[in-house]
Design brief:
Layout: H1 13-44, H2 46-74, H3 76-98, H4 104-116, H5 121-131, H6 136-164, H7 168-186, H8 210-239, H9 246-267, H10 278-288, H11 290-294, H12 298-309, H13 312-326, H14 332-359, H15 363-382, E1 396-398, E2 411-416, E3 419-422, H16 428-438
Length: 442
């Protein structure tokens, strides 16, 4: 997957370990929902199963920025093992409660705890890919490809395990999570954690940067657009009495994402400035505009779905890089974790809107929604401006005018604990310029 100037991450020992950690982080994402539904539907009912799955997803999505901040501040080796242990206890408690009818409230509590204690392997792994200049683009392409593949392999794997035993799906999720955590901890010299040079980003972390806050709005709309397709296609098949096609539609859409991610890994840029995000998002809107043309003809939708999925991985990769490049130093994992939160909120809202439209018999409108949301994301991206903050893991360069009217060599500005700390090599006359430049970030 390496592009010019970048070798394949699988050709490096640390790259292979990160790839296995990525698989352990992404595959459970495609397994957890179907595992919960199949486990709980029999004893608790399908509605209760859906509520339990929602509690798990919201619990993880709302707490993951705090988990990511803990990794940035105290290190992955202190956070991941403890959270994995708590997560294991919570999931096993959920399995025990699910085996008894009438324990819906207890299942909801255990599911919420399981989500809250879920280790943030995805953000931590992605932060490591982004911190490696040699593997940044190819590694991120691999990550987004695994994310798309999890939508295909996850439900298939979970269904096969549940066929053996109702709780085997969740046990498989636990095993994969533990395996991914072990590979993450085994990566030498690149584990996310505290950086004495750059501090911790202060109380607000990456949220104190205006460009990053606007970036979360972009992610909210983009994830809503993507989820509205991923949910709308199988729901449309079910409504038309062709439930057997629903899996094929999701698979075709995900295959498009895999192909797009691999292509981007070979040719894409190593950095994605926030204000340049509008182009891949416009491409996403153009791809999604093919869906309403197919209408509710499932055979046509099946042929169009891979083309609609092509830009998905590119958009997600561009958002991840833009978040890394706009967030303050020392907040690499937290920045990626906030994207997960925005993704969770956008996905939940889109699922409600699209399924409601389909239930009211408006399939064409439901297929137009993804294009509208993608265009809204592109419009929001136009409002994002680079804030001049330190990139995660690097310093920010401040260009200092020289006495001759030219520009002197760039000087480095570093941050610590939320306040600017300027390299003392800078003359006092230039400190005011640095402060004035940084004021735009708040």
């Amino acid at each position: 997957m390496g592009g010019q100037g970048q070798g394949s991450p699988l050709g490096r020992p640390e790259g292979r370990r990160l790839a296995l950690a990525t698989l352990g982080a992404r595959l459970p994402q495609g397994m957890i929902g179907i595992s919960l539904l199949l486990l709980l539907a029999r004893e608790q009912g399908i509605r209760a199963a859906g509520e339990v799955a929602a509690c798990y997803t919201l619990g993880f999505g709302m707490i993951v920025p705090l988990s990511g901040r803990l990794i940035d501040r105290v290190g992955v080796r202190r956070v991941v093992p403890v959270m994995t242990l708590a997560h294991t206890v919570s999931v096993l408690s959920l399995i025990a409660a699910a085996a008894q009818s009438g324990y819906t409230i207890l299942c909801l509590i255990c599911a919420a705890l399981a989500g809250v204690t879920g280790p943030p392997l995805g953000p931590a792994v992605r932060a490591l890919w982004l911190q490696s200049p040699e593997m940044r683009r190819a590694g991120l392409a691999l990550d987004t490809a695994f994310l798309s593949l999890s939508n295909i392999l996850g439900p298939v794997t979970a269904s096969a395990l549940v066929a053996v035993h109702p709780s085997a799906g969740l046990l498989g999720v636990l095993l994969l999570t533990m395996t991914g955590g072990c590979f993450l901890l085994s990566v030498p010299g690149r584990s996310p954690g505290p950086d004495a040079r750059h501090g911790t980003g202060g109380l607000w972390g990456p949220l104190r940067v205006s460009a990053f806050r606007r970036l979360l709005t972009v992610m909210l709309f983009a994830s809503s657009a993507i989820t509205s397709v991923a949910v709308g296609l199988p729901a449309l098949a079910e409504i038309n009495g062709a439930g057997q096609v629903s899996g094929l539609l999701v698979g075709a859409f995900s295959v498009g994402g895999v192909i797009g991610g691999i292509a981007w890994g070979r040719r894409g840029p190593r950095h994605s400035r926030p204000h340049r995000l509008s182009m891949p998002l416009i491409g996403l809107a153009a791809a999604f505009s093919l869906l309403p043309l197919a209408g509710d003809h499932l055979a046509v939708l099946l042929a169009v779905a891979p083309f609609a999925g092509l830009p998905v991985a590119i958009v997600l990769a561009a958002l991840a890089m833009a978040a890394a490049d706009s967030a303050p130093a020392g907040t690499a994992t937290e920045a990626q974790s906030w994207l997960v939160t925005a993704n969770t909120a956008g996905s939940a809202a889109a699922a409600v809107v699209v399924t409601d439209l389909l239930a009211r018999g408006e399939p064409r409108t439901a297929l137009i929604v993804p294009t509208v949301l993608a265009l809204m994301a592109a419009g929001a991206a136009l409002l994002v401006r680079d804030g001049g903050e330190n990139r995660a893991g690097t310093g920010s360069a401040v260009r200092v005018p020289g006495r001759d009217g030219g520009v002197a060599a760039a000087q480095m500005v570093t941050r610590s604990a939320g306040r600017g700390r300027v390299d003392r090599r800078l003359p006092r006359s230039n400190l005011r310029r640095g402060r004035r430049s940084r004021s735009e970030d708040i």
